[in-house]
Amino acid sequence: MFSDRSGLVNRVLAALIACAAMLSFATLAQADVTQVNANPDTVRINTSGTALVSVRWDVEIDYLPAGPVTVSSSAGTLVVDGMTVPAPGGVLSRTVNYSGSGPLVITFRDRFRISRTHAKQIGDGAPAEYSRTFVDMSAYPGGDDVDIVARGGGGAISLRDISLLFDDDTQFRSIPQNASITARAVVSTAGEGRIDASWEVAGPDGGQFRPIARVRQVLAGSRRTVFESPPLPTSRAGNYIVRFATQQNFSGTADIDEIRYVVTPGGAAVPLTLITPRAGESASAGTPFRWSQVAGAASYRLEFREGGAGGVGNGARIAAVDLRATQTRLKPFTLARIRDRTPVFWRVVAFDGDGNVLSASPARQLGGGSRSQSNN
Amino acid sequence: MDGIDVSDALRVDGGNLSLRLFTPLEPGTHELVIYSISGQDFQIVGTFTFRSFGVSEGDGSGLAVSAEHKIGVRTLNDDTTEFAESAGEFQYSTVNGGLRVGADYLATTVVEDQLTDNAVDIGEYYVELHRPGDMFDMTARIGHQSLDFDDVAVSDIARRGLGVYLATPGDRFSLGVFATQSVESLGIDNFLGLDEEDDRMFGATASLRPFSSNDFRISVTGAEARGTAEGGLTVGAGDAVSLSADGSFNDGRGRFAFGGGIANWDEDAEGGLFTEDTGEAILASLDYDILDGTEGSSLTAGIYYDRVEQGFFTLTNPSMPSGQENIILSTDYAGEALQLTTSLEQQTTNVGGLPTVEVEEYTTLDISGSYGTGEVGAADFSFGVIGITKRRVPTPLVVALPEDFDSVEAYVGVDLPGEHFSWGLTYAYLGIDDLSVLNDDLTTHSVEARAALLGDGGGSADATVIVTQTDDLFGEFVDAEAILGFTAPIGGSDWTLTGEAAWQDFGDPSLEDGALLSADLAWAFRPSAEMVFSAGYSTGSLATETTDDEEWYVGFMLRARTDVFR
């Protein structure tokens, strides 16, 4: 009897251990990244240029011990027409505190770009799919994929062209300390999306990129937009690098997505900033040209110049106005000189009473933006 | 005077006109033109040429060299590097401007600072020869040059190459030809811009003003290009031609322009991956000054139309939007203190695209303005609103569901410039109502405060603080950023302390926070030379030079400046 009871206990214990083992195995099998959902599950891109794509990943984790959990995906995979193309999308990683009970959904922003060539293939009907696999510290990953299809006119924003230049139409500048300088990005886009960009500067002489201005704007439809930076830092001599960066990796070509300037020591220029018209806007008879006042200035010269060869400062002067005030409207004979030459560049030079140059403003493009949008 | 409006310096004295220029005249020949103005019409009353005499140095040619040279050592997170660098520019022009030469350069041992892959490199350069003649004025350029002949075929680009331009006096007839690189470039490689067959373009333009009595102009432009488009991986080839006309009427109060053209483009010139695209483009605009400013206010109304087919692309006007039909109505008002610009745009997509593809319609209302005089001590207000709607035009049933949306952006700001202290404040709002099934709505509120202080002794400080609240599918976040810069001369010495600080705190968990502090202490022991001690510390997103979360650096350098003016 005892032996029977003993045998029964042993059988029950064995069954319990087996159940525990099965439960344990089941827990391990379902643990960690239990579900991954891409939103949207189909991305519609505009195919007239480099497509800037945004995907949200909802990653569910479960069956983990309480404590910090790091969930990550090392890279995205884009397959176009059966070929894996150079991987867009970098590392996505987040560390969260998991309570130890129930599922937890972690969201990731994933922004990447599809080259103009591959976007055009998709536009011509090639199938395309983007996928990611997420893992945590355990060994059970999960993943999902997104279909990428072409849109006729709408779709995620695409970058048709970008040109990053200094205010005087050059790609490299050497300027004295405290002189005024700005940069300009002329961006042609199609589709629609919100641009979250920043003007960033590194320097002098190495150092970190840091934002000096933010740009948040909705761009919709096919258009050309002129973005002008705020005055770039020139109070410290040295080498600087400028870029127009966005969270969508909204950069230019591999060669010219950054531009450089050198501030040489010893300048004593006083800042002179332009107010209106904004970059890319056109001028008519009533357009007021306005700029900041310079202490000690006896007169100002508003100049209209061509860009190109050697920059605006060396470009041919198309017209100019000498005046005492810090704003003016153009007379018809001046307007006639610049009207059929736009886009031209305008800048202001301040003189003291003896005709010595006190300060010069950055140059600004007149005309050249889409009729309905420019941005400073 | 020499193309400068000097009316502000003109006085009527006892029936005589007297002119007292604000800046001295250079020695040489000058041209004075007197206009009579009636509204937007003007006529030349008289033209006078005269010669002014003054002290002229040398042969009258101009030479300017400006350069900086430095040598030093920098330690970044225990890694020490020595560096040497020289950068500057050179410009030369003959006395009559017949020859102009300019170039800039950068030589550095720091790889990250190099313009291209070369330790010694040039940036942009130009050699320009100008020869006036009885029949034609000729300008020939080698190096970087602006190419901007119309709005269709060749527009608003600057490239390295060759160009020759002829124009009759008064620009009644002009002719230009160019051969350049297809993309922007710097560096000593491909010096002429014509070395690479797969990065080269050619073109020509001619324009004619057939009537001496008005400014009507007609021009024709053609170009052929081979190269890689922005973001592309293949070498493409194509061509474009255009015909343009512009002019004015009613004494210049009304202005018009028209352009039409066609472009062919094969994205992979040698391959069979893509077939050649073709697209036509039409642009037209008409502006009229309802109030011409003679009463103190001006009001200009305009209408603009373009239709550019999806297949239109050319490397000689790469930023030309395509695949759309636009109609825009605009008004531009300017009073003594108030300026107000409005535009209403309607854009239809898929122009020239497949009939089986959906068509979208964007409507954009853009109103912006300012109120103020710009004078020191007086407040300047700025404001604006942009509303955009997107709606699906009834199109084939097989296409995907609409992804319509409404968005509103609005801002209002004030700036108060002062002689020593200036400040400003701007509030901005952005709201997107996503009407698609994804419902990806977004709302942001942003406040930016800025201030600048200018001391008597050359010291200055400026600061900007931006706080943004974002509410979207990822949650609700508040991001804050601050940037501070300062320059502080130390007493009456030759020592100056300059520095800056930045701080970022992002509520969005996908963005990394960061902080930065850096400063230079410079001793100008010679007017053109100084010794600089520098130090900095940064963390998080602002520590980008290494893979470490924290970075610090210290540095020392000797720096000198060279200036030559003749």
Give an overview in words.
Chain A has 376 residues and is mostly beta strands. Chain A has three domains: 30 residues; 120 residues, Sandwich (Immunoglobulin-like); 209 residues, Immunoglobulins (Immunoglobulin-like, Sandwich). In chain A, 12% of the residues lie in helices and 47% in strands. In chain A, strands 1, 3, 8, 11, 13 and 16 form a six-stranded antiparallel β-sheet that branches. In chain A, strands 2-10-9-5-6 form a five-stranded mixed β-sheet. A five-stranded mixed β-sheet of chain A has the order 12-18-17-14-15, with no helix packed on it. The radius of gyration of chain A is 30 Å and the shape is elongated. Chain A starts with a helix and ends in a 10-residue tail after the last strand. The N terminus and C terminus of chain A are likely disordered. Chain B is mainly beta and 566 residues long. Among the domains of chain B are: 56 residues; 190 residues, no CATH class. In chain B, 0% of the residues lie in helices and 63% in strands. At the A-B interface, strand 8, helix 2, strand 11, strand 12 and strand 13 of A face strand 1, strand 4, strand 6, strand 7 and strand 8 of B. Strand 22 of chain A pairs parallel with strand 1 of chain B, so a sheet runs across the interface.
The stretches of 5 or more residues of chain A where confidence is low (pLDDT under 50) are 1-6, 16-31, 248-256, 370-376
**CA-based gyration radius of chain B:** 29 Å
Structural class of chain B: mainly beta
Order of helices and strands of chain A: HEEEEEEEEHEEEEEEEEEEEEEEEHEEE
Report how far the terminal alpha carbons of chain A are from each other.
Answer: 93 Å
User: How does CATH name the architecture of the largest domain in chain A?
Assistant: Sandwich
Question: Mind describing the biggest β-sheet of chain B?
Answer: 26 strands, antiparallel, barrel
How many helical stretches of chain A? Answer: 3
CATH class of the largest domain in chain A: Mainly Beta
Structural class of the helices, strands and pairings of chain A? mainly beta
Assembly type: heterodimer
Low-pLDDT ranges of chain B: none
Number of strand elements of chain A? 26
